[in-house]
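Feature request, filed as a ticket because there's no other form

It would be nice if the structure record came with a short human-readable summary line next to the tokens. Right now we just get the raw output. Example of a typical job, pasted below so the devs can see what we mean:
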Amino acid sequence: MCGIIGIVSRSRQVASDMYYGLYGLQHRGKESAGMVTSECGEKCCFQGEMGEIPIVFSKKILERLSGNVGIAQNRYSTTSESSFENIQPIQGYWGGEEFWIAHNGNLINTEDLREYCLNKGRQPSADSDTAAIASLISLTSAFSFEQAVKKTIQKLRGAFSLVILYKDRIIVVRDSLGIRPLCLGKRKDGYIVASETCALHHMGATLIREIDPGEISVINRAGIKKYYHPSVTARKFCIFELIYFSRPDSIVLGRRVGDVQENMGRLLAQEHPAEADIVIPIPDSGNYGGWGFIEVSKIPNGQKAILRTHLISRTFIEAVQELRDQGVDLKFVILKEKVMGKRVVLIDDSVVRGTTQKRLVKWLRAAGAKEIHARIFSPPYMYPCYYGIDTYRVKDELIAKRNKGDIEKIRQELGLDSLEYLSLDLAIKAIIETPCVRKPCISLKPDNFCAACFNSRYPVKPSKIN
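Raw output as currently delivered:
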């Protein structure tokens, strides 16, 4: 899970715009960030560093990154290490001309691709799947760069949304199942592509549409042209994007993410009601689902009982457990007088490793809560993801899998008085039935989602499954 951006402008420098766009996508990755710009296809300027946006890009650096075309990325590592060598965008050469590539998603055949490149005498510049893609493009014979990209993606298996800077243009690519998001926006001076619409907002652009599954399009100063646009025969959008990853104000599949989560909370209250004195949506991930739960349950809103400090961002995307534990300690403060002697219902979007819930339950007990219940507006996260989330790398870290899906055992491990999850059928129903706020509204069916983390039905079968 990363955040990617591409901009082509007819009249302005784009580095500052990409800075604001990356800020809007910081929730998708914070290990490193990078951007590359080009002035009318001339020599490219690159800046990348470990850390979050304010650390990587100063005003002086942004002024150095001149150009009216550019791509950028926030990184959350999956297949490879969090290291300087793996900062994106990554450089490659095709026909003696440089190109740069940034990627959101994860390939499941990276090792095979690396071996292919090595056998052809090409050593990928880093150990990431993105570096393997760049090497493949470099090795591909074709009559045009766009054709080389098209031939390359036929070898890729997994999830990939790509932005590629080549000369004076950007090539935009999305895998045939559309697993990870990618959208197209427009403003007076040109076009922007980004992982989420929230980034478009920060760059002053309006949403045109989503990039379709399987689409390859080329953007230059003249506009956008579909280079390859097959009919959408299958769609497997990641359901966890709507539950956790995407920002609540983003529009995905025509629907506002926050509206989807509210709908999930309403259905959760119907499916698993609770007797309690207050409902506490865990900020910020549980806010919208919590409000939906409160609306239906009529239980008073106890959101004032917990303070979200904003001293630290998402703990889910911390690389190691120790950092996740410390992050939770800095993230929340319980106001004792709000919970003492009360029956509390915690609402959250998911329980993946259980880090946040365990600590909150401990603190609520210490604060004098009489009972602590939890209602989760997604099913148990049972199976590892191989398409852009690093839940496949550490054995037995998923609390639901470790307890073999036994909700009673999960409840005991978390120290709760009761625990219930929204069923997968209702989670999907909540998405499909949420009204669209933007046209075109994409018509959805229950099988249009990748829900492998809940049901182990992988749309692109991994060779090895933990």
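Something like this underneath would help us a lot:
Confidence is low (pLDDT under 50) at residues 314-319.
The CA atoms of residues 346 and 374 lie 5 Å apart.
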